[in-house]
Amino acid sequence: MNKIIRAGLILNFLLSFFFADSQTIDSAFTTVKYSFVFRPDSTKENYTKEDILILDIGHKYTKYFSHNRLIRDSIMARQIELPSISNGGSYIADMRNTPSAGSTKILYRNLQSNTVTVTDNLIFDNYLYVDSLLDLKWKILKDTLTINGYLCTKAYTHFRGRSFYAWFANSISLPVGPHLFGGLPGLIFQLEESKGNFRYKLLTFEKQVLKKPIIFYSKNHIRTNRLEYRKILQSMLDNPNGYAASHGMIFKEKDGTIEKTPKIPYNPLEMY
Amino acid sequence: MKYWQFFLYLFLPLFSTAQIAGKVATQNNNPLPSASITLHKKNIPSIIAFAISDKDGKFIIHYTANTNDTLELNVALLGYSKQTVFFLPTEKKDFQFVLTPEAINLPEVKVKNPPVWQRKDTINYNTSEFKQAQDRVIGDIIARLPGMEVTPGGQIKYQGKPINKYYIEGLDLLEDKYGLANNNIPADAVDKVQVLENHQPIRVLDSVSFSDRAALNIKLKNNAKLKLLGRARLGMGAAPLLSEDDLSLMLFKKKIQFINTYKYNNTGVDNTRELTSQNFADYINALQNGAAKNDLVSLVQPQAPPINSKRYLFNNAHTASINQLVPLNKIYQLRINAAYINDFQQQESHTSSRFFLPNDSVLITENNNYKSFLNRIDADATVMANSPNYFLKNHTRFQAWLPFAKSNITGNTLLAQQINNPFHNISNDFRLIKTNKKRITEWSSFIGYVTMPQQLQIQPGLYSNLLNNNSPYEAMQQQASLKNFFTDNYLSIRKRKGRWGLAYKVGANLQSQLLNTNLQIKQNGLLKNVADTFQNNLHWNRFRVNTEGNFTYETERIRLALNLPLQWIYLSANDELLAYTEKRNALLPSPSASIMWQLSPKWSLSSAASYNQSLGDINSITNGYILKNYRSITNNNIPLPENASGNINVNITFRNPLKILFVSGGVNVSRTKSNLFYSQSFSGSLETLLATVRNNFANNLGFSGRISKYITNWKTSINLSTNYNLGKRQQLQNNTVVNLHNTSFMFSGGFTTKISQKINTEYNGTYQNYKTKSQLSKTATSFKTFTQIFAINYNVSEALFIKLAGENYSINSTNSRQQYLFGDASVRLKPKKSKIDYELLLNNIFNTTEFTGLQLADNIAIISNYIIRPRQVLFKVSFSLQ
Question: Which of B63, B286, B512, B805 is most buried when burial is the number of CB atoms within 10 A of its CB?
């Protein structure tokens, strides 16, 4: 899998130089950072991974993306920029001292229609779909808790097969939060899945004095819908080499047989 | 109405379920989506129901409430004013809201980084935690960081070891003259200071050749990265007329970095220090190759007193520097560093030196009135590439130092001495490292040429019995000139296989030197040579071939290295006039081994053992006499000196960034063998050096330890450090070998603390004890010093700062006891938001005008009395670009 990811990332990088197209859709007046702790494998309770996510909030759009991924990408881009001296075609990227790989998903929320456009890079291709979020309904509970100096109220939702509890600050009236979550009468400060598989915590809430542009990257996206995307993702994780082979990249063992890679555990936030 | 709601009505007649709807819009009647509409009971914060306005600004809320309660409907959207209406469930069903824009005035949530935190091999110091109101430049903060130490000369050490790089935003602008950054980057511009532990500056060698040194990286605040930083300052004072002016400009962008400075002062501030290289290993290497200034003749001049240089430096110094780093293309960077110094210094001192000889002692007293003039240019141009698979560095250096000094000596003898001791150096150092799948290949070539045409003049002519058949004469003039050509070239190949690393190096170097010296005397206005034996015309050629095998083994926690260099030296020296020739062949191995062991994430142990052999240089075999200074005439009619030394050291470090505790300690054992004994002989105050061929040894055992801790709650850092050294040397006295024992002990402790928001203090006390004892004498001679430095800063308001500082020196020897107290005060006014600040300083409040210092060496005791700077007042105005 590692090989595939490496090959794919580099391929993607090279492609992105040719096809990257970006468009400023809004400017953020506020930025929120969330820490995200999750269990990649639901059978391993004590194994967790971390990511830091940025939510740039504009008046029309919000953009939600991984801080760790951003850092890795910029480090890699810088290293790939340096022409390879030793032998053509091979790239060595020194990824030490970089944070662990973050999410490749980028979420753009349209605050007017309350829909979320999700883009994701599944190694070889970039996919895009629009999530209407009609099925995200909240129930506000009585509990309150002061987090980072803000009085927060608890809310509950059952969303796509999992239960979540959120704490939101009514005094910051923005119906946004981490990932797909939003639609509450206040900014979400914390969100936790009932079994502890996913935990989001607000790290910072800062105003942007110099308005930060919200840029939409359209990297040759394949337009799809949510259910289709889930199928592709599932197939990639179940059989990484098969997925690579379907893109013309075949990994062979030294004796010539096709390399077999184990299934990658999958613990999705959305169960359906 | 739904069926179940009907039942609700039946059984709970007090509650009604209802629906309200409405629209949120701006003043221009534009719909406002994503506003929060929350329904509460009047004055009760808990939310009964809510809605978010849709793209048309519309909302619908379904709710259940007691029909008698007054309800409260809040409409809010960040960036707009909040609106509240109260209503009874029975009255109103439709709401129209118009929101007006409003500045966001909510407290931000910011991550408060801990003062110190660690990420992999990087330790981050949050400068805001360690910064005090009075700090101006980053060096002020670095000196205070736990685990770090700045020597009086400006060298930065981390856990007791000198740093190997000082980066600014990851770029190496200054090589090892990092004092320029440390003394000029504004403290306010720095976000954090990073320590990169076990840092290998050459990226190609990163996983192949490991380093036990740390590098420093200065991370600037985002706003400081984009604009020009700097300061202009004017200072005037008395007495005599004082002036202190400087201008510094710097820029640290990704594509260009520069630091340009011009400074002038006659107030005792030594700005030449920031232009000094802090890499001593490089300096020693240069010295061995003849590429560093090593004067052939000198003035008799007391050592600098062991106190803060601003107390005794009577200077008049201009310094200017240009340092620029620009990328040439994607791979290569160009760096230019140039510095100019123009300095005029004066010093008045009185020295009495006592030399203890086997049967008696010689006392020399000198009143010294010294003046020196220096013009110095250093220019360096470097082309660099440092990527993970390619390294190139071509460094061209040009140095021209033109010092001139004179002094009048009264005392035992009355004389005037004068010296010209210039140094010119031009060199080029090329290094290329390439890597491919199989190996890493390195080529290196150094070539350099140095000239030192030096001259010493003494008036009147001395030692006429020795030099001029007892007839008096006017002056003596010693010419001494050294020309040195040096080249060193090598090729090395490194391979890595699993945990093993193998490197093989082969190299050749040549040193070709010519030393011309001639002692002349002036009689009746005419210069004449003294004799052939007072001349040297020595040609020296040293050819060296070295091979080196280097083996490393590395696991996650242990790194082992074994280094096996072997050099073959062919040396030839001849002086035709003196009919002297020396030819030598020698095969000298100098093996070394080291281990680094990460015992735990916090503890690490490193140890190294080395054996080194060396032969003397051209200065050690001069057969003709040279007047080194007015009271020393020396020749070396001796075989080539040979030295061999063994050294073992063990260091242990502990660091816990979470608790901000840094501890390190070490033991060092060394033994040196020399084939020659040196001893002095005196006739009057004329000293001649004698050498006897006889193996002798010097042993040394040293311990050192340091602890530093930061207590976050008290905003206090505490440092403790100690050294203990035991030395044994041998001397030849009356043809018998006498052992001399030296003991030195140092203990130093200090703290800086914030007593309150407005008051912070700094204190450091150092106790030193030095003892020397000869095998023949029953008692040891010793002296003790206790130095205390303290400061108290009082921030009267956000604009007014007061500082009181002082130094106390106490020096005790067997028969004398001295105390010195120096005090300084300053008031600084920096109006809020103003770029200008004003400072009034009063230095040396108690007007101490003299200082007496003591020096003790094996058989010499020197008492020196210096005139120091009197009380002075200075007013400075600074303008900072920020």
Answer: B286
| Chain B residues with at least one Cβ partner in A under 8 Å | 33-38, 45-47, 49-50, 52, 54-55, 76-79, 82, 104, 106-111, 119-122, 203, 206, 330-331, 387-390, 434-437
Q: How far is A233 from chain B (nearest CA, A)?
A: 32
C-alpha separations of B114 from A98, B132, B472 in Å: 20, 17, 76
pLDDT digits (tens, 9 = 90+) for B809-862: 999 887 788 899 999 999 999 888 888 999 999 999 999 999 998 888 777 888
Tell me the chain B residues in contact with residue A149 when contact means C-beta distances shorter than 8 Å.
Answer: 107, 109
Q: What is the pLDDT of residues B580-611, one digit of tens each?
A: 999 999 999 999 999 999 898 889 999 999 99
Chain A's closest residue to B196, CA to CA, is A97
Burial class (CB in 10 A: 0-12, 13-18, 19+), A117: middle
Asked if B752 and B716 touch (Cβ cutoff 8 Å), the reply is yes
Using a CB-CB cut-off of 8 Å, the residues of chain B touching A114 are 33-34, 52, 54-55
Q: Which residues of A touch B82 (CB under 8 A)?
A: 173
Residues belonging to chain A: 272
Q: Does the beta-carbon distance from B38 to A113 stay under 8 Å?
A: no
ipTM, interface predicted TM-score of the complex: 0.83
Return the H-helix or E-strand segment holding B6. helix B3-11
Give the chain A residue whose CA is nearest to the CA of B105: A207
Helices (H) and strands (E) in chain A, counts: 4, 12
Select from B683, B650, B674, B645 the least CA-distant residue to B664: B650
What whole-number distance in Å separates Cα of residue B594 and Cα of residue B609? Answer: 6
Contact state of A85 with B390 under an 8 Å Cβ cutoff = yes
pTM above 0.90, yes or no: no
Which chain A residue's Cα is nearest to B118? Answer: A97
Rounded alpha-carbon distances, angstroms, from residue B427 to B280, B325, B433, B448, B507: 18, 20, 20, 4, 18
- Closest by CA to B22, choosing from B64, B61, B55, is B61
Tokens standing for residue B289: 């190759």
Lowest-pLDDT range, A52-61, B727-736, B867-876? B727-736
Alpha carbons A243 and A123: distance in angstroms, whole number: 10
Phi-psi domain of B780 (left: phi exceeds 0; alpha: psi -120 through 50; beta: other): beta
Q: Do B36 and A33 touch (CB under 8 A)?
A: no
For residue A255, the distance in angstroms to the closest alpha carbon of chain B comes to: 22
The residue type at A154: K
What stretches of B131-175 adopt beta strand conformation (E)? 148-150, 156-158, 161-162, 165-168
Neighboring chain B residues of A92 at a CB cutoff of 8 Å = 388-389
Q: Which of 34-73 (A) contact B at CB < 8 A?
A: 59
Crossing angle between the packed helical segments A2-19 and A67-81, to the nearest 10 degrees? 80
Long-range contacts of B82-85 (CB under 8 A, 24+ apart): B82/A173
**What secondary structure letter does DSSP report for B221?**
P
Q: Determine the Cα–Cα distance for residues B322 and B440; give it in Å rounded to an integer.
A: 35
Q: Are B548 and B567 in contact (CB under 8 A)?
A: no
- Which range scores top for mean pLDDT: B39-43, B452-456, B770-774? B452-456
Q: Which residues of A touch B389 (CB under 8 A)?
A: 84-86, 92
Rounded to whole angstroms, the Cα distance separating B566 from B196 reads 33
For testing contact with chain B, the best of A81, A85, A209 (most B CBs within 10 A):
A85
In B, minimum Cα distance to A111 occurs at B34
**Residue A8: CA atoms inside 13 Å, Cβ hemisphere, count?**
24
CB–CB of A83 and B119 under 8 A?
Answer: no
Q: What are phi and psi of B330, to 5 degrees?
A: -65, -25
